[in-house]
Design a protein that fits this description.
Layout (H helix, E strand, L loop, with lengths): L6 E2 L12 E5 L6 E5 L10 E4 L5 E3 L4 E10 L6 E9 L6 E4 L6 E4 L2 E6 L18 E5 L2 E5 L2 H12 L2 E2 L15 H4 L4 H12 L2
Parallel strand pairs: 1-13
Antiparallel strand pairs: 2-3, 3-4, 4-5, 6-7, 6-10, 8-9, 11-12
Helix pairs in contact: 1-3
Protein name: TFIIB-type zinc ribbon-containing protein
Organism: Larkinella terrae
């Protein structure tokens, strides 16, 4: 019987299968935190939790609105165009005064939503853009994983000497790994880096 490290027999999963939980660096204490997401456009369930300092955030709490007013004065027909950024709530109505004739009018601005994201120079999670906990540089290339399951599956693939296609229906996560991860000459360096990340 072949050793399991010789033949890769992992699940035929795509990267999306690992994208419901992201281990990240907490923005408050820089310790391990977790971002959970329901992976839909509805962000009400997406949240950040740090078990070290107890910091937590909901994705919806970081939603902001930019209110845009494009208005032509009813009195003098001069146009007015401006925006009000970074509103926590939608701006339903505004009373504006025409800078040309002084006429005031109530207008309904257009509200465009966006989510505040953390500044991050590395690889971040898709919800808050916090640095992934599992990321490092290997021989000039950037290596990362969403979570422990994702990292372990990459390790299983890299350590295998025989890598057979798991399904002909679609391209799996391991088949889409960058070439430097798949390269046999980098196997030892990749496995060493993975073990170091797992002990982090």
């Amino acid at each position: 019987m072949e050793n399991e490290t010789i033949r890769y027999a992992g699940p035929a999963t795509t990267l999306y299968a690992y994208a419901n939980e992201f281990l990240v660096e907490c923005p408050k204490c820089q310790h391990l935190a977790v971002v959970t997401t329901n992976r839909s456009r509805e962000t009400s369930q997406d949240k950040l939790t740090c078990f070290h300092c107890n910091h937590s955030e909901k994705a919806d709490d970081r939603i902001r609105y930019t209110a845009t007013v494009k208005w032509a004065c009813d009195h003098c027909n001069e146009s007015l165009d401006f925006t009000i950024p970074n509103n926590k709530e939608k701006v339903e109505e505004l009373i504006v005064s025409c800078p040309h004739c002084g006429t005031s009018q109530t207008v309904k601005p257009k509200n465009d939503s966006y989510r505040l994201r953390y500044k991050n120079s590395g690889i971040g999670d898709p919800v808050f853009n916090l640095p992934l906990w599992f990321q490092t540089e290997i021989k000039g290339d950037f290596f990362w994983a969403f979570n422990r399951d994702h990292l372990i599956e990459i390790r299983n693939y890299v350590s295998a000497k025989l890598r057979e296609r798991q399904t002909p229906k679609y391209t799996t996560m391991v088949e889409k790994l960058p070439h430097f991860i798949k390269s046999a000459k980098n196997r030892d360096a990749i496995l060493k880096a993975i073990e170091k990340l797992l002990r982090k």
